[in-house]
Amino acid sequence: MTMRTFRYFVCPNQHRGEEKTSENDQHFSGKWDVDVTGMRGNGKDSLGYEMYLCILCGEPMTITTRPAP
Ligand SMILES: [Zn+2]
Residue 45 Cα, ligand 1 centroid: separation in angstroms? Predict the structure, then answer.
């Protein structure tokens, strides 16, 4: 059984981004596969969370509870 987690992001210009995290079947390896669309990684913040920039305008993405329409 593979677990998937979706997180949705939006930039100040209302561009949408999405992060899909899938638990690897071999979860003893502790590896997670992360698919990112609409944005690119920008390192981690001071709490260790991933940070993303919009691929269209380069603004920082903020997490949102609403999926893209
Ligand atoms: Zn944008």
Answer: 19
